[in-house]
Amino acid sequence: MRSKLTVLAWLALGALVSVPATAWFVGSGTREARQLQFKPEGTDLRATDVEAALRELSLKVKQVESGQAALQGAAMVHQSQLGEVKAQVTETDGQTQQRMTALESRITDVASPRRRIEYTDGSDTSSVNTRYAPLRDLGSFSKTSATSALFLSWNTHVDAMGEPGTFCDFQIRVDGKPDTDREGGGGRAVVYVPPSSTGGSSPVTVATLFGRVGAGQHTASVWVRGTARECMENYGNFPRSVIIEEGSRVEP
């Protein structure tokens, strides 16, 4: 009986001692957790405790995000600037292409080959007056450019028969039109009947410039006016020619 009472007494004493010890252990653990030190080795954080380190880390994340937003904004600005530069380059390329096309057209005009119309038969008329009338067609040719000018050179022989002082005025034309919108114009060969004679004769070389002839097929012709009784071109049927050349337009 006495031994049982002794065991119970020791158990009660142990319980009384264990409760304060447990409370002290729990309380001691809580205090140590609150006072836990943060070791920043290997980082760029300056905080010495966990809570401050988290706040500092959150601030750095926000700074990084702000920097990324700024970089994205700058990238958008650069992209817009690149688009403007590209548009300017495209516009410049278009203008350059137009200039190159115009230059190629001018080069084509200058480099166009000469054409020759040859003939041997002569022509004459006894129906002349003070107004130009068709005498003959010399031949057809093709013009390649709508903006070029035509230079015609005509080599022949002309005659006038009639009273002294009368004349025949020959003119080379394109599609029945002279080289000018005014009456008269160039490309003319005039032969007079000299005094004390019934006829006049002369070899001639005529050159003229046509600046308003479009591209395509055209006809070179000779027209005549005068006061003589008869006007003749290439009497004797010798080889004759007309040289036709395209070139840069010369404004009057």
User: Helix/strand/pairing class, anyone?
Assistant: alpha+beta
Name the CATH class of the largest domain.
Mainly Beta
- Element order, helices and strands? HHEEEEEEEEEE
Strand content: 25-35%
Give a short account of the largest sheet: 6 strands, antiparallel
CATH architecture of the largest domain: Sandwich
Number of strands: 10
Helix content: 25-40%
Number of helices: 2
Note the main attributes of this structure.
rod-shaped; alpha+beta; single chain; 2 domains; 10 strands; four-stranded antiparallel β-sheet; Jelly Rolls; 252 residues
Could you explain the architecture of this structure?
By secondary structure, this protein is of the alpha+beta class. Strands 1, 2, 4, 7, 9 and 10 form a six-stranded antiparallel sheet that branches. Strands 3-8-5-6 form a four-stranded antiparallel sheet, with no helix packed on it. The model is unreliable at about 15-35 (pLDDT under 50). The longest helix has about 60 residues, at about 50-110. The chain folds into two domains: about 25-110, no CATH class; about 115-245, Sandwich (Jelly Rolls). It is rod-shaped, with a radius of gyration of 55 Å. It is built from two helices and ten strands, in the order ααββββββββββ.
